Amino acid sequence: MSKVVEVSPTTRHEGHSKLVLKVNDAGIIERGDWLSITPVRGIEKLCVGKTMHQAPKISSRVCGICPIAHTLAGIGAMEASVGCEIPQDAYLLRTILQCANRLHSHALHNILTLPDMYIPGTDTKINPFTPEEPVRTVAKRLQRLREVGQTVGEIAGGEAIHPSNPRVGGMYYNISPQAKQKIFDLAKEALPLAIAQMEFMIAVLKNWENRGTVTVGKTEVEIPAKFGYHDQGYMAVDPVFDSSSLDFEPKWDPDRWTDVSPYNWFQGEMEVSLEDADYPVGGTTKAGTKTWPQMQACTSVPLYDGQPVEVGPRARLVQFKNYDRKGAMGLQIARQLEYPDCLYTMMEALDALDCNGSVLADEIPQGDGSLGWNANEAPRGCDVHLARVKDGKVQEYTLLVPTTWNFPTCSRALEGAPWQLAEVIMRAYDPCVSCATHMLVVDESKKIVAQKLVQ
Amino acid sequence: MDYLGKYKSAVAARSTSAEVLRCSQDGGIVTSMFLYALEEGIIDGAIVAGQGEKPWQPKPIVATTPEEILSSRGTRYNVCPNMSVLKESVRKYGLDKVGIVGTPCQIQALRKAQLYPVGLRDVCDKIALAMGIFCMENFSYQSMTQIVQDHCNVDLHSLKKTDIGKGKYWAYTNRGAVSQIPLKLTHKYEQPGCHVCLDYVANLADISTGSVGSPDGWSTVFIRNNNGENIWNKAVAAGIFETKPIESVKPGLELVTKLATEKITKNQKELEHRATFGVNKGLRNPYI
Ligand SMILES: Cc1cc2nc3c(=O)[nH]c(=O)nc-3n(C[C@H](O)[C@H](O)[C@H](O)COP(=O)(O)OP(=O)(O)OC[C@H]3O[C@@H](n4cnc5c(N)ncnc54)[C@H](O)[C@@H]3O)c2cc1C
Ligand code: SF4
Question: Which residues bind Mg(2+) (chain A) (predicted)?
């Protein structure tokens, strides 16, 4: 007889979500739903009618961990719609900003991941807040990496959280030679730290995978061999930056994308029948509670070629570097492997940057309502923004955000794992639920489906 | 009421550099200080009033070279929003140690930004030297144009220097002519916002300076806090400034105190007046 257990809210990720898990007698997940219960803010709706300059500044506020992605994808979509090519030096500054944000974001995610992990060779779980070694050194290194990322973001992007420098047509300003030198110094300082952090994390993640069993609360559970495996495909447009409909060879195709409503994807109404008061911290949902994923999920379900796909660090490495490690730890390890490139790419872009170069297009067309899109490789994966701009005003604006893509994929990846480890799989996706929560649902013919669900 | 603010010492001083003095407003304190601080690595740039689009219209700039600092010498008696580039100085210019000059209200803005950094992330810890200049009142660009062109009858393009002193507004031309008008003619052109200002000698700066109290070509200087004192002492030891005890110069602190008292008393009255400006209602008071 299967039972239903619910973890709500989930922790150590951005935003508000829950896990509704149907498990067998051994507590192994037969079918899992991971869903957003973050209130819909309706960014896409409220941007309609606003100017093309304003909309991306609004969508930046979707999320404060990866605002760079939404700012750049939003602006990129506007530029793609109006047909505006930006100058090379603006592109380089955006690249630097992109790398800086990825560096900070991955380091932040390490802090969220580590409490699940053990100090290799011991049964001690890692508490990033402990003043004791060897963890203290790691925590300090992570904070320095984040500081470097945020400082570089401030200089190249104007602001680390909600960058002010990017604008439709390029950037508001170039940086001074002194500022360029400062970024270079910071990148040089961060590179060995990033490599050390990458090596440390990979050792810790592999150690976890090879442990056999781990303790969650008071329960010792076995790690299954195919922990977090799924059969969905991958989607990525670039190892580092982006692709847009202005590209000579665009790496994403709007015709392959469809949306389904959560009603068609998630489980129906159920009653929680299994509870564990010892699940850290505060226990699971009380038995007898009604739960209804298909009605409660606050995201749409975007599909690529009719299937949910995985986006993020592993998807990028699979597409561009023949990476083949599967499972939740495979995804985690892929994320660590991206560390050095954040800094190498930043330094290459700096080398090419001309501080006296113009950073604003000579002409910024006002748009005729054509569809344009930009897919930004956010820290968590491909963030596609689609827009139609006419006479400088936004007519239509859609955000297909990484965690939105990952929700259904990750739900599939939960199957076969003990329910106590469901959050470990979920965290491997570095979820950003505020990012994921948006509300338009379109069907195969790209028509907006009536909103019977999301009130 | 503490009319001159807190300070550790006050002196009369002037720059020892003839090059600075050639175009500075008074003793060249601000310019020499920034040149010295830049050279010594105390600051890596300074926010000063550069040259704007129109003649005698200042524009805030982030100066990172001695040339840029030198070319912003002299008082422009109209508004220059120096704080507007504060954030930019640590962003696109990448400064770590910012020098900044400003009127008392601008130094207030700076200190408020440091204590309550609303929208000013990573700015407050990068302020290395705040130079305040005395200020009785300021004018809009249109006002200043009108005063100089209509009242003083001097074309802005031939204007070499303007000064307020001894109850008069002075305009000096490049070809040596001087014209002056009584200050009371300029009152209607003052910025209304200046009428609620309760600070004359930049009480919140590290070092503040102005002309009043010292002879022509010299400046009155208040060294206000540890940071100001450290830098000032080093600069004096390095021979950047010539100093005299403020007690030994005429008219000295007595006149500074008198003018400060006048400004603050007058503006406090204005604030009280605003409290009962309407019938059973008043205007806002930012100090409460
Ligand atoms: C609006 C105004 C009113 C003033 N009122 C008085 C007064 O009542 N009594 C008095 O003793 N002194 C007053 N001063 C100060 C005085 O005019 C000199 O600025 C001061 O003595 C510094 O002279 P200095 O030779 O040391 O500076 P300098 O070496 O000549 O440097 C002056 C510095 O001031 C900056 N500056 C110029 N114009 C402005 C502006 N509009 N806003 C902000 N910064 C500016 C310049 O960029 C430069 O860095 C006033 C100044 C201003 C701007
Ligand atoms: S009088 Fe006060 S408010 Fe007016 S410019 Fe001077 S310091 Fe600022």
Answer: 44, 399, 438
Number of domains in chain B: 2
Which of B14, B35, B43, B133 to probe ligand 1 with, by most ligand atoms within 8 A of CB? B133
Residues B84 and B129 in one domain: yes
Q: Which domain holds residue B162?
A: 140-189
Question: Domain check: are B152 and B230 in the same one?
Answer: no
Is position B67 within any domain? yes
- Mutation choice for A interface testing from B44, B85, B92, B95 by most A CBs within 10 A: B92
Does A355 lie at the interface with B, CB-CB under 8 angstroms?
no
The CATH number linked to B170 is 3.10.450.750
Same domain, B206 and B183: no
pTM over 0.90: yes
The verdict on the CB of residue B208 being under 6 Å from ligand 2 is no
Q: Chain B residues contacting A, CB < 8 Å?
A: 44-45, 64, 88, 90-96, 121-122
Say yes or no: B269 and B232 in one domain: yes
Clarify whether residues B202 and B271 are in a common domain.
yes
Per DSSP, the three-state class of A222 is strand
Q: Tens of pLDDT along B21-62?
A: 999 999 999 999 999 999 999 999 999 999 999 999 999 999
Predicted confidence (pLDDT) per residue in A359-407, tens digit: 999 999 999 999 999 999 999 999 999 999 999 999 999 999 999 999 9
How far away, in angstroms, is B210 Cα from ligand 1 center? 7
Residue where a domain stops, chosen among B171, B189, B207: B189
A19-56, pLDDT tens digit by residue? 999 999 999 999 999 988 888 788 899 999 999 999 99
The interface predicted TM-score (ipTM) is 0.92
